[in-house]
Specification:
Distance between the termini: 36 Å
Largest sheet: 3 strands, antiparallel
Helix content: 55-70%
Number of strands: 5
Structural class: alpha+beta
Strand order of the largest sheet: 3-5-4
Length: 174
């Protein structure tokens, strides 16, 4: 089961999501706000959407999460009335652009209350998880300064991989 992923999210104060070339991974708390600032590229979701950068399915998902704050993927997909592939694409786009994160996992229970099966992903807006200061924390970085901070951090661990680090951080941006 996926218990350890949720434990890491809770213990570190970081986040998990499809942040890297549309693949899932963890981001430490110290790198989360620079990542969100870089990926949002100075936009809040309304501006991002109004400028034509959000797809219609991304707008549907975001609107529901804006109302609920957090929702598991089964219920979220049903509320949006999206196919598996359309829902998956919308979630990847929202995560890659820094507007949605994975907040945890829900599990089915046996009759005697034991968890079984794969965890059902719970999604949330970062603002719902990290509180009222989230936007000001994100806005404290320009996209350029955020990129430089993350690149410098990763270069300390992988000094010979500058090109790959830039690809990894690139993501889908406006």
């Amino acid at each position: 089961v996926w218990d350890w992923k949720e434990d890491i999210i809770k213990m570190t104060g970081g986040a998990y999501g499809s942040f890297f070339c549309s693949c899932p991974g963890f981001v430490s708390h110290s790198m989360l706000f620079p990542l969100l600032a870089y990926r949002r590229n100075g936009y809040d979701f309304e501006g991002f959407s109004n400028d034509g950068h959000a797809r219609s399915n991304e707008r549907k998902v975001y609107q529901i999460l804006e109302e609920t704050g957090e929702e598991n993927s089964t219920f979220l997909k049903a509320k949006c009335k999206l196919s598996d592939s359309s829902f998956g694409e919308a979630m990847k786009g929202l995560q890659m652009n820094g507007f949605v994160i994975v907040s945890g996992f829900d599990y089915r229970l046996t009759k005697d209350g034991r968890k079984y099966g794969w965890g059902i992903t719970r999604y949330a807006l970062p603002e719902a998880i990290f509180g009222d200061d989230t936007e000001s924390m994100i806005d404290s970085y320009t996209p350029e300064s955020a990129f430089d901070i993350m690149k410098k951090h990763l270069m300390a661990y992988f000094p010979d991989d500058e090109h790959h680090i830039e690809i990894l951080l690139g993501g889908r941006r406006t």
